[in-house]
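Sample entry (265 residues):
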Amino acid sequence: MLMTVDVVKYFELSMASLRIVLIVSIVCISAITLAAGARKQSEVISDICSSSFTEGQYDSRDVYYRRVRDPNKHISARLVRYFRFGGILQAISEETEIPRDNLVTGGASQFQDQSSGLGQAVHAAHIIRVGSINSKLGKKNQSLNRALQNYIGHTQNVLRAANAWHGVGGDIDKYQSNQLGVLATVDFGSTLETNDRRTVETLITDFRNIIDKYVRDGTHTSDEKKILDADKVIVYCVVPLMLHEEGKAGYDMVKSGEFVTKYDK
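Predicted structure, serialized as tokens:
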């Protein structure tokens, strides 16, 4: 009889434990689903860093959008485009009176135009990786808000090693989020002044240090090294004036209305 009671108690405890495991599993799955669903679909748009679709060069526009890029050019674009993005934010701030350093947050991407469509070996990698857009922008100017969503949602297909969170892609993601405050101090609406030049030089150096980790220090895997060639990554060639001019181009895009025309789809 005692054995029967013990068996019943054991069974009851086992069922209780199973219920707890099931509840925890459901909560975890729900959290993952919510996190995955937080990223909004942005429009697929031909982009300044990705060239334009040309009839006859690719079988279809979809094939064009899903082509796999040279990782060296992709990594270089992530620096060049970051400065253009800085100019865009400055101009939007001036148009809307929302402080530049409050327009976007760092963190996980909230917008994405497409998946790679080519399996796990190829990632649809953001060129600009920032988090959410200040909700005030949508209330003040919906066109600028949509254009900015599509701009930061733009991706390029690259080999997984160029985008992995634990690799060069992840380090650049963190760089772009962490340096937003510094980028916001540069004036892209006028000529390059001494203080801004020093700031741009620091931003360039910090970015190059990331590349150095994967190309020159000999501590990373052969796969990581293969995706980058120091002789081909243009970040070793750029100078502050070049990147400031990129920022000025972004600034002028917003001021002229070209930014909304191109990206508000």
